[in-house]
Design a protein that fits this description.
single chain, 354 residues, alpha/beta, Rossmann fold, 2 domains, 4-stranded parallel sheet, 12 helices, 32% helix, 19% strand
């Protein structure tokens, strides 16, 4: 089912539109009775048969000709409830009218929105639907928490933090002590543990999306999860460099890590045979499929290497991939390799530190 059909079904069950049943015959009346029994209001009937226009068909609900209903087209959603043999004609007629929203009965009754409304639970989702945990982790006052404002189907939002974070009912606040092994006390290590362990922290979800605290979602990004593919993970490419040795120089130049550790780390990687220009990924957004064992193993190995060299995690990530025989062509690349800052689905602000 398309996202648009699901969105229209949601409008119908929530009463955010005027629901019109296109088809005033037996099927239409059955649909009316079913909707009414589930407390879904129907505004009017519509039908191609002029003999029905202006007449009450059931419970004082009138059949109105399409031309009159077009006056409320911005508020209305049509459900096609006629016999199947009339579907194509009705669809052609509705699509000839600009700005008309419609859904066939089978798509409405088969929607997640309808099932959740009818059965009185929001726990229903399609087996093939992405059930994803979208989360960020903020420790030691690094980054201000800004709640995501874009709601995506079958996605839940979380913020993990070492202090109370004010958020609405749309985001769950998890204290870091609830998910952190007892032996990890350093705030930076705690942050990286959460970043790299979405598959264990959110083990009840099929997918997870980790975002740094400075990232704001502007449009639906759930489709990026498809890019994880067989590897189980997807990243943006680094927007400037494609080499960990170049990145090491930049990190030292900008004083973002201890130069002695950076040199020791990259010297060890070079001695192991890690080549230059192997690629460089941006670690501030991670898209994961928890069902892929390879992706989970990448995360575990990345964590172990980062604990060994707690400098910049993009350096250890590339070494882990190389040591596992995985190149950037073997994992998902978001945005077809374009600059992440050019992605109009997300906004990246500057990091903030207390």
């Amino acid at each position: 089912m398309s996202y648009q059909a699901e969105a229209l079904a949601q409008k119908i069950v929530s009463g955010d539109c005027k629901t019109v049943l296109y088809g005033g015959g037996k099927t239409g009346k059955q649909a009316y009775t079913f909707l009414k029994s589930n407390e879904i209001p129907v505004y009017a009937f519509c039908d191609s048969n002029p003999a029905l226009w202006g007449h009450e068909l059931i419970d004082q609900t009138v059949c109105i000709r399409l031309e009159e209903l077009l006056q409320i087209r911005q508020e209305a959603v049509f459900i096609i409830t006629a016999a199947h043999r009339y579907y194509n004609d009705i669809i052609r007629r509705l699509e000839s009218c600009e700005g008309v929203n419609y859904i066939i009965w089978e798509d409405f009754s088969g929607s997640i929105a309808a099932k959740r409304w009818i059965y009185g639970t929001d726990k229903i989702y399609n087996y093939a639907t992405k059930k994803a945990a979208i989360y960020t982790c903020i420790t030691n006052g690094y980054d201000r928490f800004e709640e995501q404002k874009i709601a995506m189907p079958d996605c839940d939002y979380f913020v993990i933090s070492d202090r109370a974070v004010k958020c609405s009912r749309g985001t769950e606040n998890i204290h870091i002590d609830e998910v952190m092994p007892d032996n990890i006390k350093n705030p930076r290590l705690q942050n990286r543990y959460c970043k790299m362990h979405g598959h264990t922290i959110f083990k009840d979800y099929e997918y997870s999306i980790y975002l740094d605290g400075n990232v704001l979602i502007l449009q639906d990004i759930s489709g990026y999860l498809d890019l994880a593919g067989e590897s189980g993970v997807a990243f943006y490419k680094h927007e400037v460099r494609d080499c960990i040795y170049d990145e090491g120089i930049a990190v030292m130049f900008l004083n973002k890590a201890d130069p002695r550790q950076i040199k020791m780390q990259l010297r060890e990687y070079a001695d192991s045979g890690m080549p230059a220009r192997y690629g460089l990924l941006y670690g501030g957004a991670i898209f994961r499929n928890h069902k892929r064992i390879l992706g989970n193993q990448i995360m575990e190995n990345w964590w172990k290497e980062y604990v060994k060299w707690p400098t910049r995690d993009q350096l250890s990530l590339m070494y882990v991939l190389w040591s596992m025989g995985i190149g950037t062509l073997d994992i998902g690349i978001v945005g077809e390799g374009k600059n992440r800052l050019q992605d109009n689905k997300m906004f990246w602000s500057e990091h903030f530190a207390l």
